[in-house]
Automatic annotation (TrEMBL):
Organism: Nocardioides zeae
Thiolase C-terminal domain sequence ranges: 275-396
Family recorded in the similarity comment: Belongs to the thiolase-like superfamily. Thiolase family.
Record keywords, A-Z: Acyltransferase, Transferase
Family annotation (SUPFAM superfamilies): Thiolase-like (SSF53901)
Protein name: Acetyl-CoA C-acyltransferase
Keyword DNA-binding: no
Superkingdom per UniProt: Bacteria
InterPro entries noted in UniProt: Thiolase, Thiolase-like, Thiolase_C, Thiolase_N
Keyword Acyltransferase: yes
Enzyme class label: transferase
Active site annotation, chain numbering: 91, 353, 383
EC number(s) from the headed UniProt entry: 2.3.1.16
GO molecular function: acetyl-CoA C-acyltransferase activity
Species lineage: Bacteria, Bacillati, Actinomycetota, Actinomycetes, Propionibacteriales
Length: 397
């Protein structure tokens, strides 16, 4: 099978996903257009050569409806001939976009594909696409008569299953902010973040280039004072043994963002004289218990390692999305992972989780870390609603 190569990954600095956030005054299609233009300008690839733009977006409603990938590429000035598709594998949407892009190249179907993602959680709130709707249907309700639960309750169940205590969750979360702040201070993110000029709701204009969700002063002691977010009397009666430890401090914040990656074939490398930064080694996607919901990164990682013949010791870095602190902690405990290699530059608890954009965001951070440290193999995996996960392994070149 042919190889697929990663040429570049760009992203916007995170914006707080609420009114007043740095990116909240900007239409999500404009956010995505900006990274699409930046990606083609940085790589020198003519947009007319792009054969597809695969776009991750979770809340495909309101301003993010009607195939936002196509809307954004037209706004970016791409030729009319360039198609796009918007996909939804929940939080892993743009990671799935990357995997689909690489698989299209490896199969010989395409030579130049952009994978990207966007989410404006300030303008299209989480849950907007399901508001007031019964999305499970009678068959699912019959299969799970006690009912599925929201992700925050699933995070509580994961913490209980893996015996993760509140102090461990808060210490991990504070460390995420410390690592992200240190990476920002060192200029680590400068190579992946593209600045964007924005107008704030109060009319102020500025150039946004630093992640707005990082709180450098965060401490475990400070987080310990936060109250649990997801406990209700009804849920407490259903789950009487839960400790109710998930708070805003050990969860990822609501976030606005956009990111994009360029994937090409070996033939295009030679033709255009491009220098690849990495190649794709393996992919996996799997499902797991939809009530626990957040545990699928564990079997997805095991699956991609088995497919590639690699072991955990072969991996030099792993990006495991920090939707909630118990997710990467349970993953690391189950797989015997090295804590120093886990989200070494901070994760979503600090850098934000702009749903549809997070997959390509994690990919760019993983690639930059491999390049900075001289590592060879990196793994990316993230939990997804309804109990799914993608896992991807790249090799730095």
């Amino acid at each position: 099978m042919a190889e697929a190569y990663l040429i570049d990954v760009v992203r916007l600095a995170s914006g707080k996903g609420k009114p007043g956030g740095a990116l909240s005054g900007t239409h999500p299609a404009v956010l995505l257009s900006h990274v699409l233009k930046a990606l083609t300008e940085r790589t020198g690839v003519d947009p007319a050569r792009v054969e597809d733009v695969i776009t991750g977006c979770v809340q495909q409603v309101g301003e993010q409806a009607m195939n936002i990938g196509r809307t954004a590429l037209l706004g970016a000035g791409f030729p009319d001939s360039v198609p796009a598709v918007s996909i939804n594998r929940q939080c892993g949407s743009s990671q799935q976009a990357v995997d689909f892009a690489a698989q299209a190249v490896m199969s010989g179907f395409a030579d130049v594909v952009i994978a990207c993602g966007v989410e404006s959680m300030s303008r299209v709130p989480m849950g907007a696409s399901t508001l007031g709707l019964d999305t499970d249907g009678p068959e699912v309700a019959a299969r799970y008569p006690e009912g599925l639960v929201n992700q925050g309750v699933s995070a509580e169940l994961v913490a209980q299953r893996w015996k993760l205590e509140r102090d461990e969750l808060d210490a991990f979360s504070a460390e995420s902010h410390r690592r992200a702040a240190a990476a920002t201070e060192s200029g680590f993110f400068d190579g992946e973040v593209v600045p964007i000029d924005v107008t704030l709701p109060d009319g102020t204009t500025l150039t946004h280039r630093v992640d707005e969700t990082i709180r450098a002063s965060t401490s475990a002691e400070g987080l310990a004072g936060l109250r649990a977010s997801f406990r209700t009397d009804e849920l407490a009666a259903r789950f009487p043994d839960l400790a109710w430890q998930i708070t805003p401090g050990n969860s990822s914040p609501l976030t606005d963002g956009a990111s994009a990656a360029l994937v090409v074939s070996e033939r295009v490398l030679r033709e255009l004289g491009l220098t690849p930064r990495a190649r794709f080694v393996g992919f996996a996607v799997t499902g797991d218990d939809p009530v626990l919901m957040l545990t699928a990164p564990i079997p997805a990682t095991q699956k991609v390692l088995a497919r590639t013949g690699l072991g955990m010791d072969d991996l030099d870095a792993y990006e495991v999305n920090e939707a909630f602190a118990p997710v990467p902690l349970a993953w690391a405990r189950e797989l015997g992972a090295d804590p120093a290699k886990l989200n070494p530059n901070g994760g979503a608890i600090a850098l934000g989780h702009a749903l549809g954009s997070s997959g390509t965001r994690l990919l760019g951070t993983l690639l930059a870390d491999l390049e900075q440290t001289g590592g060879r193999y990196g793994l990316q995996t993230m939990c997804e609603a309804a109990g799914m996960a993608n896992a991807t392994i790249i090799e730095r070149l």
